[in-house]
Inverse folding.
């Protein structure tokens, strides 16, 4: 973590959404790379250019099941006058020391098996009698049933040019070629290539470990009875799931009561497994805003970039936010507001890009689109705030769901987009083209 | 698994891509549902309508940090003539037994805290002097620093209507409402709603367990030295990763040598943890096609739907394919061809939809689009085969990468789409609009 604040905000100033995001992204650095087994590296970002050590395929090999022969021996062969060749053996895939094919000879060869010495081309088994002497066949008999298929004579009914049905050594990639560039995200096809060129491990940025905890003495674990004044904790579940969706290994700590000392010691306990900490609640202007109270004091005045700064953003929902770093390793921490919709929107706008930056990705934001607003009446939005309303986006249109209330979880669960109403807009008429953030 | 074959194909008949896919999807059934903890259910399909047991919020509560008051007591309050009220205590979030607010009184109230008895509305702290007697404030002092903030008198500088800044009981969802419909895929916002309404567990279809094994005596684990005639196993890595991308819990068994007995016992060993088995290689017309040999005998003639059927598809790459079921539980098995590109394309077309069907999803296919072909020369495609070429798709255009060869892994690793050339098309001119399958 480098220093946090990019502007010396006076206490009552509002930060813009963009200033807060820029502050976060300028402070969060990609994680140090580590060497991982291929399947552990799935979805990770490669940090090295990977070169091809040995050409692929490593040897000339057959692309068909058939017979490896010399070109001259099958020249002019046809249905009526087939070439008849002596079968000298099998060349299976993986054969270390294949039989030699001399003039007038053929070897049964399997897909992927090395072209044996002496052979110049491959005729597919369907162009032959498969050694059975009864006209064209549709396949070979399996070796265990008919080992004699590798002996006797084969009738070939068509000629073939030199190197027909042969995959040349290096025709996929050549030794010294660049296989994958640093920065590549490793999906299944990229892992296929790494495996194919013999790489068992690869140097990538690891998936960030994200610790999620919610705060609030009113919070009860789902599945347990509510007492008076209590509600169920939903933020820690939603944000743990969202962190995983963003590519993190996420740990849900659960709900911590509104006690500064408990919160501070819980966070200190978690530092050992955190590349990023996310809290919800306790960041506003009330007397029980425990995150603000506990973490405003966690900074070390002697060390730049240490401590969490609490801000008010020109944003709805999500006005109160905290960002900074804690602990001797300056682990970044984002303190989100506690209302379920506020915390989820804040996650999408700020935490997801932070996680993806830690992962080494360059494309860190949700995609955005333009869509025509479908609504019965104009949307109202407070002047000077960037509003993010929940909406359903389809076919170039977007329809708001639920209202602006930051406690409306049911509507959030039906939304697939956020409708962005800029700071200087107070009303959006139906039919207007608006910007939408596309969620998952 | 119900019966496999939908048409009595004569041995030499080619199945179409659509017939093979239809056969698979008509035989594969969604997995039996289980009750899972919320975070274990992420990405899963809900199998029950979930109703709201208790209204949300469960009680009227404050949407602001401020003071809970009676409307009449602050009527006409202004900067010059503030209302002065006696502060009778704090109402924190989670408060079980809040203080009563009488005439001329106010209680400090925190966001989310229950509206106390007697109070009719909430004034935000920013509309008051916070009890400090020095004009409007921007927030409360934290309780630990200034417990006296809950006592004394507060000046209120603005009036408020009844129930201002109050979130009404049931304003999010009401008891008896439908929270989530059966069939919903549980992402972070849906998990938020389930948690919010108190559900600790939920009934979903589990993620399918997919066992992936590659076959071939030529295969060597990546990271190990190649001997003559050997290549590195890449299919088991690529398909395990692809199965995970499709939502499965995937197990990579690795490469099995071309020996029918070994393969049969390996598969039998794996049945215990498999909802679906995927093999690569050994399905063609050669003498060493061990999957075909081993599994053609695995069926129980007395039981419908048992056993694996091997077919040739009117498709390039991916002509030889096997599909059926094995073991006493009729676990579905897809036997894919062994060339890396063939197996990957086959996975995308057949295995991914099967995994998603097992998951209970209805939208099982990769999205498709139309794109203008960008190429130096016409694409050639064999008549009677549906060809799937690798391409890079962007901005409504698609450019082929690599050639048609099914061993070209490097090109596959650069592709993000498959270009579909229909069976009756032998040549596609540059600029023609083609169908593309969008990968990942």
């Amino acid at each position: 973590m480098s220093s946090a604040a990019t502007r010396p905000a006076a206490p009552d100033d509002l930060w813009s959404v963009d200033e807060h995001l820029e502050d976060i992204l300028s402070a969060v650095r990609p994680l140090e790379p580590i060497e991982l087994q291929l399947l552990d590296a799935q979805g990770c970002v490669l940090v090295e250019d990977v070169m091809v050590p040995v050409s692929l395929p490593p040897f000339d090999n057959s692309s068909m099941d058939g017979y490896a022969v010399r070109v001259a021996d099958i020249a002019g062969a046809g249905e009526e006058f087939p070439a008849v060749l002596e079968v000298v053996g099998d060349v299976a895939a993986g054969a270390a020391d294949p039989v030699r094919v001399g003039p007038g000879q053929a070897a049964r060869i399997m897909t992927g098996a090395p072209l044996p010495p002496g052979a110049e081309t491959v005729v597919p088994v369907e162009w032959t009698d498969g050694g059975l002497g009864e006209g064209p066949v549709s396949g070979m008999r399996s070796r265990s049933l008919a080992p004699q298929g590798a002996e006797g004579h084969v009738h070939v009914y068509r000629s073939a040019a030199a190197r027909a049905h042969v995959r040349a050594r290096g025709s996929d990639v050549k030794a010294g070629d660049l296989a994958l560039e640093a920065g590549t995200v490793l999906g299944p096809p990229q892992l296929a290539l790494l495996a194919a060129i013999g790489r068992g491990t690869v140097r990538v940025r690891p998936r960030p470990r994200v610790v999620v905890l919610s705060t609030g003495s009113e919070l009860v674990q789902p599945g347990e009875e509510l007492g008076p004044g209590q509600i169920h904790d939903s933020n820690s579940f939603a944000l743990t799931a969202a962190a995983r969706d963003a590519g993190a290994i996420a740990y849900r700590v659960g709900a911590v009561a509104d006690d500064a000392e408990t919160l501070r010691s819980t966070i200190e306990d978690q530092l050992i497994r955190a590349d990023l900490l996310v809290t919800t609640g306790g960041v506003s202007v009330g007397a029980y805003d425990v995150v603000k109270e506990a973490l405003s004091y966690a900074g070390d005045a002697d060390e730049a970039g240490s401590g969490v700064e609490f801000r008010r953003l020109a944003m709805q929902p999500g006005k109160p936010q905290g960002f900074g770093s804690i602990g001797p390793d300056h682990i970044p921490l984002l303190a989100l507001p506690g209302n379920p919709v506020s915390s989820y929107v804040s996650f999408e706008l700020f935490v997801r890009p932070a996680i993806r930056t830690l992962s080494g990705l360059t494309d860190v934001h949700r995609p955005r689109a333009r869509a025509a607003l479908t609504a019965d009446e104009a949307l109202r939005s407070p002047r000077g705030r960037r509003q993010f309303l929940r909406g359903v986006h389809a076919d170039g249109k977007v329809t708001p769901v639920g209202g602006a209330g930051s406690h409306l979880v049911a509507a959030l669960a039906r939304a697939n987009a956020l409708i962005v109403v800029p700071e200087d807009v107070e009303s959006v008429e139906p039919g207007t083209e608006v910007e939408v953030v596309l969620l998952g």
